[in-house]
Amino acid sequence: MSKYHQKDSEIYYDDTDIPKNKLSLTNSEELHEIEASLLEDGYELFISELDQNTIFNEDYFISLHRRTFESLYDWAGLYRTEDMFKGDSVFCVGRAVKAESKKIFERIKGENYFKEFDTISKAEFAKKLALIKSDIITLHPFYELNGRITRLFFDLIVIYNGYQPIDYSNYTPDDYINASIDCVKYADETFMEKIILDGLIKQ
Ligand SMILES: Nc1ncnc2c1ncn2[C@@H]1O[C@H](COP(=O)(O)OP(=O)(O)OP(=O)(O)O)[C@@H](O)[C@H]1O
Ligand SMILES: [Mg+2]
Questions:
Q1: Over the stretch 32-81, which tens digit does the pLDDT of each residue have?
Q2: Is residue 20 part of a domain?
Q3: Which residue, judged by its Cα, is nearest atom 21 of ligand 1?
Q4: What is the number of structural domains in the chain?
Q5: Is the C-beta atom of 151 inside 6 A of ligand 1?
Q6: How far apart are CA 69 and CA 34, in angstroms?
Q7: Does the C-beta of 4 come closer than 6 Å to ligand 1?
Q8: Range of the domain at 180
């Protein structure tokens, strides 16, 4: 019985939390190793592609998931339509993901796609980032790899603005989950804001 997804999900091998994959791997450790190596390649690729013309819009966000993981997963770059939950947290219902995502990315557009944020203070930047990150965490748009792709997206935004990738190492993985729970269950992004602020370092 899964803790994450519907029982009749098409995405996972029956009665497991292992997503169906192009290598037919059913060992989660092997799968995680391959995901880690693809993510590393993704970081390298997307950082190398960053330039003045980069726009942090919805297509860009989706392309991070698709291009990083399409060699492994058929559903790379596709929003989920099934409902998902973790612990007591229920993410956006599957049928609403597309519309809710549009709303979030409209807000990013309203922030001029997070460009020229090197002109505001680090604290203000962290606050703006945390508000949007909280909503993306609550959206949980993909079946898997949401945490990693969301962190990649925000790392690219901060790198564009003259910072190093956000350093999460001041906090434990449990802290990060607790900050996410605050976002999803209580719409409270203050802990996530603190994590981001403490991890923002100028290049
Ligand atoms: N109990 C919870 N309540 C709310 N949000 C949660 C909970 N557990 C995890 N999350 C959020 O979901 C994300 C994990 O989603 P998913 O498993 O799709 O991606 P992932 O790349 O494996 O993430 P990670 O590397 O962060 O574990 C976490 O990064 C966190 O933001
Ligand atoms: Mg996961």
A1: 999 999 999 999 999 999 999 999 999 999 999 999 999 999 999 999 99
A2: no
A3: 145
A4: 1
A5: no
A6: 10
A7: no
A8: 28-199
pTM score? 0.96
Q: Which two tokens stand for residue 20?
A: 């169906």
Q: Which of 43, 73, 148 to mutate to test the pocket of ligand 1 (most atoms within 8 A of CB)?
A: 148
CA atoms of 160 and 164, how far apart (whole Å): 9
- Mean residue pLDDT across the chain: 95
- Report the 3 state secondary structure along the chain: CCCCECCCCCCECCCCCCECCCCCCCCHHHHHHHHHHHHHHHHHHHHHHCCCCCCCCHHHHHHHHHHHHCCCCCCCCCCCCCCEEECCEECCCHHHHHHHHHHHHHHHHHCHHHCCHHHCCHHHHHHHHHHHHHHHHHHCCCCCCHHHHHHHHHHHHHHHCCECCCCCCCCCHHHHHHHHHHHHHHCCCHHHHHHHHHHCCEC
Would 65 be classed as within a structural domain?
yes
The confidence score (pLDDT) of residue 193 equals: 98
Task: Provide the residue type at 171 as one letter.
Answer: Y
On the question of pLDDT at 31 being above 50, the answer is yes
- The predicted pLDDT at position 8 comes to 75
Look at residue 152 and tell me if it is in a domain.
yes
